[in-house]
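Fold it.
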Amino acid sequence: MPKNYWVENKQVSNNMTYDLHLHPNYEINLILTDGVDIFINDTSYISKRGDLFFMPSFTFHQTNTKGIEYQRYLIYFDNFAISEMAPFLVPALNFLKNCPVNVIHLNEEDVDKILNLLDIASKAQQQKQGIFTDFENICSLGNILSFIISKIDLEAYLNSDNKKEDLTKKM
């Protein structure tokens, strides 16, 4: 059975570049390093610790560390497999898939909260050799997706003419 979901804490050495690419899987990145160049579709970003980037299936993206040691958490999953195994997560996945922004920024308190959720998911995944099949893994992913969606300011999105603006909730 192929891996169809995983959470990975990635440390990338200096001068690493991920060339422009796309893939059929959905990717969410929590950036823990300032100053990395990230390109998604037609927009360039310079990362800040706490940036959460969304890359739906078949989205062009690229990363250039510019000589910085780069740390991130990567959540990577096959949307179709999750739809079959955990249909109750489909609305959350569809919302994120269709969200008009590629990034939101989390404050340090929220970074700590999501890191805790990611650690729980990573441990649950390791117990099942990285295969997303059991209740604990489904709950872990559901908690992560719910947390992320709770940080998006839906009212600002619904009332905005410019759907590309920063939609991070202001607390």
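The longest strand covers residues 5-12.
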